[in-house]
Design brief:
Blueprint: H1 2-11, H2 30-44, E1 50-59, H3 62-73, H4 78-91, E2 95-108, E3 112-114, E4 117-136, E5 145-163, E6 167-186, H5 187-191, E7 206-219, E8 222-231, E9 247-255, E10 259-267, E11 277-285, E12 290-297, E13 301-310, E14 313-322, E15 335-343
Antiparallel strand pairs: 1-2, 1-15, 2-4, 3-4, 4-5, 5-6, 6-7, 7-8, 8-9, 9-10, 10-11, 11-12, 12-13, 13-14, 14-15
Helix pairs in contact: 3-4
């Protein structure tokens, strides 16, 4: 049943019109950029069932930018304050920064079997903070501006993996609470001590109920995965910029003894299908500790990710490196990410 629903959803997608490489407005849409990077972040993360999981993605220079701007706005001398703020805006001109922080916990429930299918249910809670920031002078070269998009969300519900000799997957039913805000800060706004990133402004929450469905079919040494996330058929309590639009994903992978390769496609409203294409590969050294190395290539960046699994501890550190720069006339720095998980024994 889940498989049919997934395939039907994926093959009835509307084909969106692509976005050009050159911005058509004087202010870039940070929501669209954030949505693409956030979906890449979601699909880069392993779907391991763990007791506790902490994940962080942050662009190079994000901490320096926020710290330096905060110090500049505290300058008591008005003339020096104006000069320092303008100097920082010019230093980071036409660059972007991305931030994603995620924590989740799972409580296992009694396992059970129906005929040849084993179910592994659990209750879960997830908390996420995300931000997208860029500084540009599009449309007015004498007046740099900072565009920001901030999002906070919480999910609580029930989930279950299921396993069969010929297929496996998962389904989730949960309450999704989301709040977000878009802002445009001019040079004058920043001089008046307005923060670049202020999560306290996320005070209007929208609630809805959502479903995640995924199924993987096994064909000898190949696997085909179809997935839909955040499918919310009911209207939200209030409107948000991000909305409650589903993420669709297809992946085909060939598994060998010590390595794998494959590729896939993902799509959500706000970005074009070509931005969702990727290729991937990885190698594994079995034993204790288990060592893995994976890489993923999109149409603008490549991920390099070593991993180690030792008992219940799973640790991965990686970098998302740009091989195409700038993107939409914005310079994109490397993104560092760390994932720490405490998995269930066995």
């Amino acid at each position: 049943m889940y498989s049919c629903l997934l395939v039907l959803s994926l093959f009835t997608l509307p084909i969106p019109s692509g976005q050009g490489a050159v911005p058509t407005t004087t202010v870039r849409d940070e929501l669209a950029r954030y949505t693409l990077l956030r979906d890449r972040t979601i699909l880069e993360r392993p779907e391991n069932l763990s007791i506790l999981s902490i994940k962080a993605h942050i662009s190079s220079g994000t901490k320096s930018l926020i710290t330096e701007m905060s110090e500049a706005t505290k300058e008591p001398n008005p003339i020096q304050k104006n000069l320092q703020v303008m100097a920082l805006l010019n230093r980071y001109l036409n660059t972007e920064r991305y931030l994603d922080l995620n924590a989740s916990a799972n409580i296992p429930l009694p396992y059970f079997r129906l005929r040849e299918v084993q179910f592994l249910p659990h209750a879960f809670y997830t908390f996420n903070l995300g931000a997208q920031l860029s500084i540009s002078n599009f449309g007015d070269v004498t007046n740099p501006r900072a565009q920001t998009y901030l999002k906070k969300e919480k999910a609580i519900g029930l989930s279950s993996e299921y396993r069969h000799e010929k297929y496996q997957g998962y389904f989730r039913l949960y309450q999704l609470t989301r709040s977000d805000v878009k802002s445009l800060l001019t040079y004058a706004d920043i001089v008046e001590n307005k923060s670049l990133i202020e999560f306290d402004s996320l005070n209007i929450e929208a609630q809805s109920y959502a479903v995640d469905l995924a199924n993987t079919w096994n064909f000898k040494n190949k696997q085909l995965t179809a997935e839909v996330r955040e499918l919310a058929p009911l209207p939200a309590s209030v409107e948000t910029h991000y909305g409650f639009r589903p993420l669709f994903h297809l992946n085909l992978r060939s598994n060998q003894t010590f390595w794998y390769y494959g590729g896939g496609l993902h799509y959500r409203r706000f970005y074009s299908l070509d931005n969702g294409l990727y290729a991937e590969a990885g190698i594994t050294r079995h034993g204790t500790p288990r060592l893995d190395f994976s890489t993923r290539l999109s149409n603008e960046s490549i991920n390099l990710t070593p991993e180690i699994t030792w008992g219940i501890l799973h640790l991965r550190y990686g970098m998302r490196l740009q091989y195409r720069n700038p993107v939409d006339e914005m310079w994109v720095p490397a993104t560092h990410f760390v994932i720490l998980e405490f998995q269930y024994p066995g």
